[in-house]
Amino acid sequence: MNFQIVTGQQLQQHIDAIAALRISIFKEYPYLYDGDMQSEMDYLKSYSKSKNSILIIVKDQGNIVGALTGIPLAEADEMFLTPFAKNQLPIHHIFYLGEILLSKEYRGKGIGYQMYRMFEDLVRQKKQYQKIAIAEVIRNQHDPRKPKNYISVHKLWERLGYIEHPEMVMQFSYKEVDSSGKIPHSFVFSFKDLEGV
To answer: Global pTM?
Structure first.
């Protein structure tokens, strides 16, 4: 396995591969996202334009099988900033972890955890960030579409030191697998305090 760190506008050359990986993985529960390349390219533009974004790529025999993306919250799409404005919280000392993506056959081997540790170290090295933020889609615990063997990643975030803030919720509409149009979804933020840790 080969781990590669890409920062800033160098991310541009990997956008196609990351977009394809996002579409493939986010079709799974809990997102059930029916994505398309144009929407993904639009979403990733903020990452490719930023001088401060972070991309960690995992390759196996030259093929990208995993990726992690992050960006200063102040440079993220406006929809991410709405709950911060509503709750009058400053954003310039928060780094946003966009996603950890890993193809199914590579999960459960510590690869995602290694990517995360590399990411947190990079954010700490930047010095100016006090917190890392993540956002998770909110699903009904009894959603009939949830696979029987589904293991929520929420417990992992808790073990890594993230605390959920139920008052920090953003709304985002997207097309689900088998839906005829876009459906509104709620995402809740969790934060990890980097100070003194």
So the answer is: 0.94
